[in-house]
């Protein structure tokens, strides 16, 4: 059954809430292929003690493993926050078909670091979906940490 972008972003927000509950920066992701969620993940930097364990990287790794492929041109990644430059590079190399993100990240997002798109030329990009919800979760997380 075909779901809306908003539905998938709500699923990514649920993953971000799981990260929040675990003391991780609350960023969640779902990776969708053929109208089916094949990966659900969230940041696990603290758990894995790995600075590269961002939701996007974990989603790419799990999806490639599950699909037995190194490229994901038919996939859409829904992520609650604008990808950082590291994740943008990983998304570039995965040749992901589409990226939909929630809130922008003026401090660490790719848009603040590069003047042109860091994504594969064939990748479609959409930002701002459920941005306020994602931003509220991030603000609450960092407010609690102070």
TrEMBL record:
PROSITE patterns attached to this UniProt entry: CYT_DCMP_DEAMINASES_1 (PS00903), CYT_DCMP_DEAMINASES_2 (PS51747)
Reactions that this protein is recorded to catalyse: adenosine(34) in tRNA + H2O + H(+) = inosine(34) in tRNA + NH4(+)
GO molecular function ontology, one term from the record: tRNA-specific adenosine-34 deaminase activity
Cofactor detail note: Binds 1 zinc ion per subunit.
Function: Catalyzes the deamination of adenosine to inosine at the wobble position 34 of tRNA(Arg2).
Keyword Ribosomal protein recorded: no
GO biological process, one term: tRNA wobble adenosine to inosine editing
CDD domains assigned to the protein according to its UniProt record, in alphabetical order: nucleoside_deaminase
Swiss-Prot/TrEMBL cofactor(s): Zn(2+)
SUPFAM superfamilies (UniProt xref): Cytidine deaminase-like (SSF53927)
Name assigned to this protein: tRNA-specific adenosine deaminase
Organism annotation: Arachidicoccus rhizosphaerae
Keyword tRNA processing included in the entry's annotation: yes
PANTHER family reported for this sequence: CYTOSINE DEAMINASE FAMILY MEMBER, TRNA-SPECIFIC ADENOSINE DEAMINASE
Keywords: Hydrolase, Metal-binding, tRNA processing, Zinc
InterPro entries: APOBEC/CMP_deaminase_Zn-bd, CMP_dCMP_dom, Cytidine_deaminase-like, tRNA_aden_deaminase
The protein's enzyme class: hydrolase
Signal peptide extent: none
Domain CMP/dCMP-type deaminase: 3-132
HAMAP family listed in its UniProt record: tRNA_aden_deaminase
Binding site for Zn(2+): 54, 84, 87
SUBUNIT field: Homodimer.
Enzyme Commission code: 3.5.4.33
Active-site positions on this chain: 56 (proton donor)
């Amino acid at each position: 059954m075909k779901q809306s972008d908003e539905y998938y972003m709500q699923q990514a927000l649920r993953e971000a809430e799981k990260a929040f509950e675990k003391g991780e920066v609350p960023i969640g992701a779902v990776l969708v292929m053929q109208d089916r969620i094949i990966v659900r993940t969230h940041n696990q930097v603290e758990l894995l003690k790995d600075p590269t364990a961002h939701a996007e990287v974990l989603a790419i790794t799990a999806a490639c493993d599950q699909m037995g492929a190194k490229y994901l041109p038919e996939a859409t990644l829904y992520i609650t926050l604008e990808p950082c430059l590291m994740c943008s590079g990983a998304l570039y190399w995965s040749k992901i078909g589409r990226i939909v993100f929630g809130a922008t990240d003026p401090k660490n997002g790719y848009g603040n670091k590069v003047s042109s798109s860091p994504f594969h030329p064939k990748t479609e990009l959409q930002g701002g979906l459920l941005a306020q919800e994602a931003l509220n979760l991030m603000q609450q997380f960092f407010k609690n940490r102070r």
